[in-house]
Amino acid sequence: MKQFSFCFMWLFVICFLTVFLSAELHATSLPHPIRVAVMPLHNSNPDNRLDWLSIGLQDAMTVDMWYLNGLDAESLPGLPSLQELEQMDQEQLFKWAKNKSLDVLILGEFKGDEKKIEVNLKVTEVSTGRKIFEIRYFAPINRLLAKTSDVVLELAGKLNIEVSKAEKQRVLSKKTDKPGAWELNAKGYRWQKIYGDIEDKKEKEKILKKWKKALTEATTEDASYAEAWNNRGWMYVYIKDWSGALECFKKAIDIKPYMIDANIGMGRVLQRQGKKEEAL
After folding, report:
1. How far is residue 244 from each of residues 236, 251, 269, 274, measured CA to CA in Å?
2. pLDDT per residue over 262-276, tens digit each?
3. Dihedral pair phi/psi, residue 126, rounded to 5°
4. To 10 degrees, the CA torsion angle through 223, 228, 229, 231?
5. What pTM was computed for the model?
6. Count of alpha carbons within 13 Å of 148, Cβ hemisphere only?
7. Which of 15, 47, 218, 220 is the most exposed place for a label (fewest CB within 10 A)?
8. Rounded mean pLDDT of 175-186?
């Protein structure tokens, strides 16, 4: 009996190591930088009250990944329509990802309430459709952004990406601890994606009002929320309000001088204003 138990234990260890090493080798074989896209997460709750977390988590992870040299994170790349993406089944999604030359696709879902949100992420290799690993984490909604940044670093480690001290500090930098501001910023980001898909002028005006209202309220609720200032800056770029865009990008950069997207936005605005030397 003891001999049987001993053999069973070794069989279990061998199976575990086989699965673990397989995932490690799979991650090692990926190119560097890894081209990755995070898809809007599925809301597994029976109601739609927290639907905004779908794109809120997607955007938060993508922005954190921009700070890591080992990842080439795409923000919904080449997307003809946000609604179209959300209606794709898994087969269509992977076909789309292959056409965009992505290496890794991150799919996920969440459930729970403000006291405890559970997030499940599945990291998958696009070329084979094979799951590399999964990550599951929990946090109350006012700590979920900070916990998600921790998870981005964990994900990078599992993909064998070296992270410098400066990169780690940027990923872990404070976003907002006010769920209301995060919700407004997420809704604003969603309006941005929808605005670009609409051709009817009256409909665009309606979306723009909602978009502007959400981001203005986000930066009012938390004036130190650099990511919301940045998104607000890009909103003004869309409508060619260069002075409004410049003001918002400057505020984002004052809070986080290393914010890549805000620096790109400010450079673009300065060029538009003919201030090429300042843009460099």
Report:
1. 6, 11, 10, 16
2. 999 999 999 888 876
3. -70, -45
4. -170
5. 0.85
6. 30
7. 47
8. 96
